[in-house]
Amino acid sequence: MMLLMAIIPILSVFIFLFFLKQTSLRAGVFSLMVVIMITFLYHGYKLTPENMVHSSLKGLFISFIAAYVLFFGILLFHFIDGVGGIQSIASFISQATNDHIIQVLILVAGISPLELTGVTRDS
Predict the structure, then answer these.
(1) Residue range of the domain that includes 12
(2) Are 39 and 70 contained in the same domain?
(3) Under a CB-based contact definition with an 8 Å cutoff, are residues 38 and 8 in contact?
(4) Could you tell me if residue 56 is inside a domain?
(5) By Cβ atoms counted within 10 A, which residue in 9, 70, 112, 122 is the most buried?
(6) pLDDT the model gives residue 123
(7) In this predicted model, what pLDDT tens digit does every residue of 42-72 receive, in sequence order?
């Protein structure tokens, strides 16, 4: 039963996004309401209202961090693309080798350091 209760919020996101055609913001808010209802109605979680508010605020702040990183990453992509940097990188990698696997490895090795910046793990 606990597994079913844990899967329902994830399924609700997909239902709101893909079947009910809601925006991502609305799907997130509606799914948060589903989670709050499950937490109140299903006593397996044993959360107090104070813990629910604390967890919701913590999730909100983590979402802001993720949105901040994504926004500036996409902005950086558009700046680089605007000056022809993406095409330059693509032509460099394609000229370096004809092997597609090595091309992907070069691309991943160049981008992977960017993954570590901006988001820290909360212990």
Answers:
(1) 1-46
(2) no
(3) yes
(4) no
(5) 9
(6) 44
(7) 877 778 889 888 988 998 899 889 888 889 9
Distance, in Å, from the CA atom of 55 to the CA atom of 60, rounded to the nearest integer, reads: 9
Query: Residue 3 CA to chain centroid, in angstroms?
Result: 22
Helix (H) or strand (E) holding 110, with range, is helix 100-115
The neighbour count for residue 39, using CB atoms within 10 Å, is 20
22 with 69, same domain: the answer is: no
The rounded Cα 41 to chain-centroid distance in angstroms is 28
Token couple for 78: 């558009």
Which residue, chain included where needed, has tokens 């899967």? 7
- 34 shares its domain with 75: no
> Residue length, the chain?
123
Q: CB of 74 within 8 A of CB of 80? A: no
Indicate whether 114 pLDDT > 80. Answer: no
Q: Are residues 74 and 40 in the same domain?
A: no
| pTM for the predicted model, two decimal places | 0.59
